[in-house]
Design a protein that fits this description.
single chain; 10 helices; 307 residues; 5-stranded parallel beta sheet; 4-stranded mixed beta sheet; alpha/beta; TIM Barrel
């Protein structure tokens, strides 16, 4: 019997003016004066998820809608607590994306600890539930940062992107230990990397974001299937601003940054819906549930077998 394939949809809930590529052009002090579009865009994504066919395994009908993980920026959550509560009420997982979208490598240990702790507490206060996961802004993870994430009470991190073409992405020396797509860092802490495709020693970025907007949709879907055949799971990420072609434009940004930010924004939502349709029959679940229901079970089974 073929193992069930798991899809982990993740969304970094931040607005158009908070992205790293525009930091030199949009000072933090101006954020309160910017047009907020993240709520409407996030609700559009929720509508797409809610509109997915709720087919169960083997063609059976399921009453449970597909679930995802929303890594919410504390700055956004503080201003839009109802959005956070509504995401949580829909059954999706709420996790932390930090507070002010500062790269971890630009923070002192004390600053990072404060950011990790305050963002988690805020989200837990809003939802009344536990926050288990963290994703570093800009995937700016490191071994030291990973230790701090665990020390601040999180159960997992999802900040590692193995593609080396972006200099901001952090580096980790992960050992695949048989617990699904996750790496077991300690007895109670996991790393869930973004999924990429490997061609020999070359990493092809097919985890989502700008690569999802740039890579032709048929190739992207085939690559996802290849990852699923290898790992029985696929972790995808997207930002709400990536489905918004009408967002304000940052004209003073460099041509390179403008291309990376604006390419194919008008195609993202239909491409996303098409990707979901192509994955019908897979199990859509949040990151924490995946660790609890798949990774830990696999790890226990292999331990019992002495593998």
């Amino acid at each position: 019997m073929q193992p069930i394939k798991s899809i982990l949809l993740t969304f970094d809930v931040e607005d158009w003016f908070q992205v790293e590529n525009f930091k030199n052009y949009i000072p933090f002090s101006s954020w309160p004066d910017r047009e907020l579009r993240v709520e409407s865009n996030t609700r559009r994504l929720l509508d797409v998820l809610d509109g997915m066919p709720h087919d169960g395994l083997n063609g059976t009908q399921s009453k449970t809608a597909p679930k995802a993980t929303f890594f919410v920026l504390g700055w956004v959550a503080k201003r839009m607590p109802k959005l956070v509560r509504d995401i949580h009420a829909c059954g999706h997982e709420i996790a932390s994306h930090g507070f002010n979208h500062n790269l971890c490598c630009d923070c002192t240990p004390a600053q990072l600890c404060e950011d990790l702790s305050e963002s988690r507490k805020l989200l837990e206060d809003i939802t009344g539930g536990s926050v288990y996961g963290y994703r570093a802004p800009g995937f700016s993870i490191s071994e030291d940062v990973l230790r701090m994430v665990e020390e601040c009470g999180y159960s997992y991190d999802s900040s590692y992107n193995s593609f080396s073409g972006n200099s901001r992405y952090g580096k980790l020396d992960l050992v695949r230990n048989g617990a699904g797509i996750a790496s077991r860092i300690s007895s109670s802490f996991f790393e869930l990397p973004v999924s990429n495709m490997h061609l020999g020693n070359t990493v092809i970025p097919i985890g989502g974001g700008g690569y999802f907007r740039l890579v032709p949709a048929p190739f992207f879907r085939r690559a996802v299937r290849r990852v699923l055949d290898r790992d029985n799971a696929y972790l995808f990420y997207l930002h709400p601003w990536e489905i918004d072609p009408d967002q304000p434009r940052v004209e003073q940004a460099s041509l390179f940054f403008k291309f990376r930010h604006y390419v194919n924004l008008n195609k993202t939502l239909p491409r996303f819906a098409g990707l979901l349709k192509s994955l019908a029959g897979c199990r859509f679940m949040g990151c924490h549930d995946y660790i609890e229901q798949v990774c830990k079970n696999e790890f226990r089974a292999k331990t019992n077998l002495g593998i």
